[in-house]
Amino acid sequence: MPSSNERSSSRQALIDAAKSLMIERGSIEVSLSEIAQRSGLNSALVKYYFGGKQGLLLALLEDVLGPSMRQMEGLLTMDVPSVEKLKLHVKGIINIYFRYPFVNRLIHYLFEDQQAGEKVAETISRPLAKTQRSLIEQGIAEGVFKPIDPKLVYFIVLGACDHLFFGTQMLRIAFGVEGVDDDLRRSYTDTLLELLLNGMTVDKPPVERGGPRVRLL
Amino acid sequence: MPSSNERSSSRQALIDAAKSLMIERGSIEVSLSEIAQRSGLNSALVKYYFGGKQGLLLALLEDVLGPSMRQMEGLLTMDVPSVEKLKLHVKGIINIYFRYPFVNRLIHYLFEDQQAGEKVAETISRPLAKTQRSLIEQGIAEGVFKPIDPKLVYFIVLGACDHLFFGTQMLRIAFGVEGVDDDLRRSYTDTLLELLLNGMTVDKPPVERGGPRVRLL
Hints:
Oligomer: homodimer
Strand content of chain A: under 5%
Largest sheet of chain A: none
């Protein structure tokens, strides 16, 4: 039996190998033998540590998204205005896609299997949706956001965030743009946030509704 | 040699068989022999009519999107305010995804091949982007839209539109919603349009910027 340190470092080496292969290829089509070769470990260890390839993919997802998920849950309890929370939230999601463009494909791939899908729902989708719901409710309570269905926002925001990264082939072939660089990431984030914030915040021109004017952005 | 009528009806039968199989499965994983069996035709005809499976998939995409693409180009030349054009445009895209939820996967699949990707870029992506650019430019000229990069809007709008349909497994497993029904389609369209229109239109609260107030929606 490997020691607990060896166990932890071999486990991580397999995750890192899968991660770097997916980043290089812009694809989740990576075989166990390629992961073994890259990590310098025997592919049988995938079964030993993760119960199989599906388990490795779930562990990879947790490795990539876990820290941000915990950061996001921390954000919720902080005394920060809802608009700022939404900005941090959207920037956080786009940064994840920027660093790990394969994440969206991986999530949808895992959702094709009921059991893996339930695991992703439990660890990623529902906590993410809960965060969004909570910050939207905060914004509505602050009188800053209009009432809006958080479930619909979830699909709109995630869809908009991932599409630029999911569609890098389209970006290249149809628009002649070679991948998402830092400038494009920044201008995409700014544009999306401007659309969302203008779209979601209460518009109170004093002439039409009276009452104290709320400072929005 | 088949007559021209036979040719056209066999060709269409193969397209229709692929289409109905993809709709039923919510997946583009459909084999040539399944398409042959569903259409009652020999799978060799796929090579005869389309040059191969890739060609059949391109023809299917044209069959599904072609009429809407032409409608959209017609819309551009009509004397309609930009806001109305944007509404029709977004509704049109969502309706396509509603009827053919496999379209997004099919497009991204075809973009994985350089040659097929160029064909999709030429017939779908670039005309769509051109339509959006033109209606955004009209809106800016009308003083209704703020300056915004149409390329970024393209990815935001398409990503938001497709995600609800692309993520039907996620919708089911994570949110307990069994597929997109007509109510959900309508509320998603309304919410997305409200976000976009509020986000894109010029907001001029008189106290802050002075000048005449523009009636937005």
